Write the structure tokens for this entry.
Amino acid sequence: MPKNTWKEALEGRAPDAWETEIDVFETQLLLKKRGKLDDKLFAETRLRRGAYGQRYDNGKRHDGVETQPLRYPAGDLHKGPETLWDAPGMQRIKIPFGKLSARQLEVLAELAEEYSDQILHVTTRQDIQLHFVHIEDTPDLMRRLAAVGITTREACGNSVRNVTACPLAGICRDESFDVSPYARALAFYLLGHEAGQNMGRKFKVAFSGCAQHACGLTGFHDIGCIARVQEHEGRRQRGFAFYVGGGLGPVPQAAELLDAFVPERELLPLSEAVCRVFSALGERTNRSRARMKFLLKKLGLEEFRRLVLAEREKLRPDPRWTEFLERLNQETEAPLHAGTHAALGPGGESPRYRTWLKTNVYPQRQLGYSAATIQLPLGDFTPVQARLVAKLMRKYTGDTLRTTVEQNLLLRWVSNEDLPALFAELEEAGLADAGANGLTDVTSCPGTDTCKLGISSSRGLARELRRHLSADGARPEAAGDLHVKCSGCFNSCGQHHVADIGFLGVSRNVDGRRVPHFQLVVGGQWENNARKFGLAIGAIPSKRVPQAVDRLTQAYAATRTEGETFPAWAHRVGRKEVKALVSDLTDVPSFEQAPDLYRDWGDPRVYTTGDQGVGECAGEVVSPTQFALATSERQIFEAQLLLDDGKPIDAARRAQAAVLGAGECLTRELEPGLGTAADEVAQKFRQLLHDSGAFDAASVGGKFGHIFFKFHELDLSAVSPAAAHELIEEAQLFVDASHQYDTRRVRAPLVADALEAAP
Amino acid sequence: MTFVVTDNCRRCRYTDCVAVCPVECFHGDAEMLYIDPQVCIDCGACVPECPVEAIFEEGLLPEESQRWLALNAERAPQLPVVKDKVEPHPDLAARLRELGLDST
């Protein structure tokens, strides 16, 4: 029989749990369309599967004069508060530590082609993003990813985001050891882990193989691990310097050292303990103060450490904590071709090749091999290019590459002998631009192109800077390696705080009109895992930013001392002097005199801030109870489908799961240490919710608590269709009553109170 | 939606918030600052900057501070924009004691 759907065609290719999750998500889409799922709950549900909002998805777009409505076929149906169903969205795809196989890259190319605007975008956290995706395509998109080992679970939302790591891990000349297997172990341990399901905000983890380079960026993550080998308990052991509570955003905070050496076997449990402390005590009402850096500041490092260690002591041992240590070499990559001891790239003598060799090629620790960076302007590449890269991987390097936080791709294990041929093939596809990770390789977040929060066009600016700085004579030699990074707003997705020259989008008011600007930040530290942030200098009109960059690079080239880095120069010269270099650029003439300044890069409309939407960066805080009740709703819906399908016993079993699940989550709220045995749950439900009268008191029009016990004792050996029908109705009554209880009961003490109560 | 400056700012007026505002929506008089709700884009960047926790999202305004919503909307447009950080209010020390925020 032909397979008509992706679900049928791919059955059994992904782990069962992944397939089930995606089926569940598809059912939730259906329930949403039938009006059975609340907007906020659905929004957080899709965010936790990486399906994110996109600019203009509230159905409005400013045309430069006034806001115009955008009409979509599904009318008033929403996929989140103020987010229209048919408005295109973004799908974020988590790529743990940026590692992709050739096959995965090909599937991504297919998905970009079929479901998006045909662009693959590499993010500053090693994810791949597709834009202009319709929500109803996302379940199949996810199935096709799952079939090649990629999950989008917890790519957005209040959850543990993609775990990033240095792209040179395993081949770096300076690393203590390869952090890849550790990054993978922690990523999959925390994925879907109960400790990460109730966070007040997002949570980011990064790994680095060494302390001195930038690659891992552990200086500004919630958890940052730097590989270390040292004498511990009498023998040489692997472990990590373990940092916590870093973050960028409007209030950048360098991570603090929780423990100078965490042995490898303690990595997973200690990370779990940190997640638990953050979940229990992190702010949830006020989103602006909800990241873990604020909790750390509030508690102080000592108290935070005490709480984490106390939490660690309480954890029940889990075999996964150490199992991965037996398989560390699984992550080891085998090169395709023999390495050559010849010097880098014999043969190719064209000047373009020599330059590329100098700027894009890194000699690996393994003699005879190199890693080559494919520079992607703005982090974008096309499906055609992606397929070519997959082909080149199979031809030259073996099966893997890495995405990088500088929005590029890194081909590893290229035999030095193959470099000229590889260059020639890359050049043909437009993928051999020199200057990777240097001045012209400008990083940018999506900004006003697609992000709802963007204030100024960071991509427009980055594109222009790249063009401007690529011109002959536009780059003083001393400035060739500087990092330039642009964010469309203060949330720092472009990581401007840790660039030599950084920009964040702001808007300024001139005679009652808005003018797009970028705040200039100079001298952030990229090296040493990006632990020091730049100096804010002032806002410059967007259209004059290229001039400002020229002045900075020229002043630096002219006045730096021998060997002085840009951050060192900026801090020596000082904020005032740097400001003086650009201060005349800040005066904005009237609209009539200089209309161009009132338009943003790459956008013909007169600039406005009227298109900003509500951020979805981490959605709404939805309690585990609300999620559990949504699960019960879905199970009742599925029970009905099973009954319609002539399967009354299966239907009754599903209805039973709905009731017992709802009852269990309400009981667990009151008794966090509750076990999972059915009898224990029933006994506690009776004691805390039924006999106390608390459950029934919340319902209007009847008492439904007793239904729980009927389902607890339900005999599933023989259920007639009529009996199953009745059971489904009763299950619905119980779940409705659970909703009423959840809304009406006196709320458990707020987290703020819990914090006050913490010793 | 907008963010709202409330009573704690009165006679503190730290102005740390104005430095991070991406849209210059703070206006001020001698006593305190106000946010222009027509300009505020709800980013929340100002909230963690305020040393006296005077700024709230509209939906999270405490009951006793509700009146500040209208006061911000009314006063902000009549006052000059405050773009750069200035010295706090001269009564700051006394005011902090009054608010119970005096750490000394």
User: Anything to note?
Assistant: The longest helix of chain B spans residues 67-75. Strands of chain B lie at 3-5, 26-28, 33-35, 55-57. The longest strand of chain B covers residues 3-5.
